[in-house]
Amino acid sequence: MGKGQNSIERDRRRIAVLVYPGMVALDMVGPVEAFNYASRLSAATSYDIVLVGENTGPQTSSSSIGITPHQTFSQGCEQAEILLIPGMMHPEDKSYLTPALTEWVRSQAAISNKWVCICSGIFVLAETGLVDTQPVTTHWNDAFYLRQAFPALDVKEERIFVQSGKLYSSGGVTAGIDLALHIITEDCGKDVASRVAKRMLVYLQRSGDQRQFSSLLQAQSRESRFHGLINWIEQNLHREISVDLLSDRTAMSPRNFSRAFKAELGCSPMAFVIERRLETARLMLESGDQPISSIANACGFRSLDQFGKAFGNKFSVSPRHYRERFNAEK
Fold it and tell me: Does residue 73 contact residue 101 with C-beta atoms inside 8 Å?
């Protein structure tokens, strides 16, 4: 058969995935599935995924799921676009860190264009001596130990993911999917990344500088003195809300209220209100065909222009385009 429009050769990008006993399966499976979807949806780029371990027997993950490598460290390394290193539950336990593993990671990194460390996978790469003072992130629960083990690293524990040159690192679990979407955007474009995100039922894209915890999740995960106030905010997003109004409801001075709120939830009261307005608007855009102007009013924005700017700053897309992309390919 002659070459035609349907037989255009795509740019094939190899991903070498480290597999080892005790790894967190989702740190690997989440990003790998994102790259797999991208291969199906992109007309120009595909990813060839190769799992590499010390032997070809099943490697038991932290959740007791066996993951079987395609090839072994002893088979050497091949040029790869991405070296992907998943994390483990207890990075302080270095039993996984065999000489063969360390040497393979070091050798594979030397011929890979991107070093992608998911969650505590950054510990594995740091053990090779290939990273020193770069900014990185990891799961918030491991940040203290990462600083102790590698004090030269600039640990950004609140960030979802961090890119520094060819080094990419992410927080735990689902943040690995966010990082994969970021890389897919680089490789395949925003349209493919947004379609992958929709297939995986995740955000269109969370930027790397977003916090690992949303303010609402922080409030819900602890006994908060502001629990009642937060419920009131959720039910009154359509209203004009000010620090004075909120402080009156807590019988505190505006200054003391603002300090206490930020200390407990990690953001200012008005930043919290804006976050809740935008998140509620995002869900409304997904769940129906209500006019965008009505959504803006229901979420407390004074005008479509104000809503559009705030939504674009947070999600890097306009409300109209967000709805169109979300509704595409149902």
Answer: yes
Q: What is the pLDDT along the chain (330 residues), one digit of tens a residue?
A: 344 434 567 899 999 999 999 999 999 999 999 999 999 999 999 999 999 999 999 999 999 999 999 999 999 888 999 999 999 999 998 998 999 999 999 999 999 999 999 999 999 999 999 998 999 999 888 989 999 999 999 998 878 899 999 999 998 778 899 999 999 999 999 889 988 988 887 855 555 455 544 555 555 545 568 888 988 998 999 999 999 999 999 999 999 999 999 888 778 999 999 989 998 998 898 877 899 999 999 999 999 999 999 998 888 789 998 888 777 644
- Beta-bridge partner residues of 20: none
What is the pTM for the complete model shown?
Answer: 0.69
Query: ∠ CA(239), CA(240), CA(242), 5° rounding?
Result: 130
Give the C-alpha separation, 155 to 131, whole Å: 12
Map residue 116 onto helix, strand or coil.
strand
Residues ≥6 apart with Cβ < 8 Å to 296: 281, 303, 304, 306, 307, 319
> In degrees rounded to 5, what are phi and psi of residue 303?
-155, 160
Ordered by where they begin, the domains of the chain are 8-199 (3.40.50.880), 215-327 (1.10.10.60)
CA gap 178, 120 in Å, rounded: 16
Instruction: Give residue 168's identity as a one-letter amino acid code.
Output: Y
Burial of 328 (0-12, 13-18, 19+ CB in 10 A): exposed
Q: What share of the chain is helix, strand, coil (3-state, %, to 5)?
A: 50, 15, 35
The answer to whether 210 touches 60, Cβ cutoff 8 Å, is no
Residues in Cβ contact with 40 at an 8 Å cutoff, skipping those fewer than 6 apart: none
